[in-house]
Amino acid sequence: MGKDALLLIMLAEAVGLAALYLLLQRLSRFSKRTWDEVPEFLRQVNHAAIEKLFDRRQEAEALAFGNARRAMRGRLDLAREYVQCLYHNATIVYQWGETEWSDMVHHQLEYEAETRDRILALHRESITFRVAARVALAKIWFWSILNFDRLALLPRPSVAALRRPGSVDLLQAYQRVKAAAADLASVYGEEQSAEIMELM
């Protein structure tokens, strides 16, 4: 067997193992969330700190002194933590919305048109945010593996630029997810809606 064939077999094994790992991860996740399971799974968000991290002026000030590349690497790592937290919350409320819709369809429940619209709005806003967050996380991952902080030849990334990984403003998109989740929670009561606003 030649080197090329052996390399091809190793590559196929790596792809197969990665696919198996992703499949097992997906199968092991609990995603049929009811309202009762939502609040305890949400992570507290420090919106002021996130706004500050993704602000261009604040970024320029933070990088003005010392080793700007190393400082940016730390900021990039912090951005990953924040975006993952927001992504986690958006996923939890997305799963809840999906469960609400699934229950309505499978159990022939009669939801008011307004409630159905709220579920669809949460679905739409969650998907928009989650796609934008994945793009931002992919960019963070890419810059991190390049070790730009050690290689002066590479351009320095900007955390502030990650706020708009495409045509979507990440922080505004998250606020829309939060508002849609609170709107759907209001079906259960104003207390539940306020809880969403506080937790997210």
Task: Please provide a written account of the structure.
The chain has 200 residues and is mainly alpha-helical. The protein has 2 domains: 1-30; 31-199. It is 72% helix and 0% strand. The protein has 8 helices and no strands. It has helices spanning 3-28, 38-41, 47-53, 56-62, 68-106, 113-146, 170-185, 190-199. Helix 6 (113-146) packs antiparallel against helix 7 (170-185) and helix 7 runs antiparallel to helix 8.
- Level of helix content? over 70%
Radius of gyration computed on alpha carbons: 21 Å
The gross shape turns out to be flat
How many domain units? 2
- Which percent band covers the strand fraction? under 5%
Structural class designation: mainly alpha
The main sheet comes to: none
Q: Report the average pLDDT across residues.
A: 89
Q: What string, H for helix and E for strand, traces the elements in order?
A: HHHHHHHH
How many alpha or pi helices?
8
- Distance, first to last CA: 57 Å
Low-confidence runs? none
Number of strands: 0
Jot down its keywords.
single chain; flat; 8 helices; 200 residues; mainly alpha
